[in-house]
Amino acid sequence: MALLDVRQLDVRFSSRGKAVQALRGIDFSLERGERLGIVGESGAGKSVAAFSILNLIAHPGFIAGGEITFDGHHLNRMSERQLRKIRGDRIAMIFQDPMMTLNPVLTLGAQMIECLKAHRRISTREARQIALDKLNLVQIPSPERRLDQYPHELSGGMRQRIIIAIALLLDPDLIIADEPTTALDVTIQAEIMALLTELCDTQNVALMLITHDLGVVSQVTRRTLVMYAGRIIEQGPTREIINDPQHPYTQGLLDALPQMATPGERLNQIPGAMPSLNNIPPGCAFNPRCTFATERCTREVPHFVSTGGTQVACHMVEAMLAKEKAHDTV
After folding, report:
1. Domain that holds residue 147
2. pLDDT (0 to 100) of residue 328
3. Residue 7 confidence (pLDDT)
4. pLDDT, greater one: 200 or 8
5. Angle, helices 186-203/156-168, rounded to nearest 10 degrees
6. 8 Å CB contact between 47 and 11
7. Where is the chain membrane-spanning (predicted)?
């Protein structure tokens, strides 16, 4: 049984008397110790998918349908009190900006000890020792001194390591990392992602990494979901998706990486922009931006077809596979 199983997840936001869909029929699973990447542009629905798992979607958002199962427990059927026992304990989150997570008026030690005592019946001395152990685990120098410091006294990279240490305090089964390196420079980004990878391998923690950067995903995850306008449009082993993307949108994301552009020239970009939730195009939502779009793409939502180890929702790929199959039977 998968550690996390999401089936037909439908999330909506009330707007001017009607509900618009942010997620439409999302299906995915995550095994223990597995590293999963979720990629796409801003507005694709990546963070909404992550927040839905622990029902952290703020009003006017709500889960309209589907099932979220974690280790056999149906999360979207739980009360708020039951969910509090899982949040931070068995499922931990790492957010984009550590200063939005850390309390600026409390020392790091006070925050870590408070977190531990909220979930465990332990003494302050025991909690402080666990906090020290976790700071050592994420390679924080002089951990004893750091516990008595305030967030503003640390660098951005150090604060992000603190957030990872807090996420590990209660030995979770799953860490959800939402753009964990966005505000950091490239060198620190690499260090943080290497640290997360090492921790997942040594602690057998599953990781769900949400990012817009396929370059980061290629270095960290084993499997990837590509999202567009609230749907998954391609999924499979990360290496296959990076080396041989099937969906035109995935190819566009790869072409937009800085290393894919000719030095001295403009970066490649996908024409157009992500559609707003109240104006999703009919058929394949990517069709207005796709150079391969046909009339069928404007009226029919594509279903998943398998090609190699990946699944892709694209009429063009479906047509090519059908043509190849017909040729093979001749």
Report:
1. 98-169
2. 64
3. 96
4. 8
5. 10
6. no
7. none
Q: Is residue 84 part of a domain?
A: no
Residue 49 within a domain: no
Residues 6+ apart with CB under 8 A from 253: 39, 40, 41, 212, 214, 226, 245, 270
Q: How confident is the model at residue 295 (pLDDT cuts 50, 70, 90)?
A: very high
d(Cα 126, Cα 174) in Å, to the nearest integer?
24
**Cα angle value 6/239/185 (rounded, 5°):** 90
327 burial via Cβ count (<10 Å: 0-12, 13-18, 19+): exposed
| Residue 293 counted as domain residue | no
Distances 248 to 96, 142, 212, 245, 284 between C-alpha atoms, Å: 28, 49, 16, 8, 12
164 found inside a domain: yes
Q: Which of 67-71, 142-146, 259-263, 308-312 has the lowest mean pLDDT?
A: 259-263
Spatial CB neighbours of 147, under 8 Å, sequence gap ≥ 6: 107, 108, 109, 112, 128, 131, 132, 135
In the chain, the number of structural domains is 1
Per-residue confidence (pLDDT) for residue 266, from 0 to 100: 85
CA 310 to chain CA centroid, Å, is: 19
Residues in a beta bridge with 29:
5
Tabulate helix, strand, coil % of the chain (nearest 5).
40, 25, 35
In 71-168, DSSP assigns E strands to 73-74, 91-94
Query: Residue 214: which pLDDT band, with cuts at 50, 70 and 90?
Result: confident
Q: Give the integer Cα–Cα distance in Å for 297 and 288.
A: 9
Across residues 203-222, what is the average pLDDT? 90
pLDDT of 148 above 80: yes
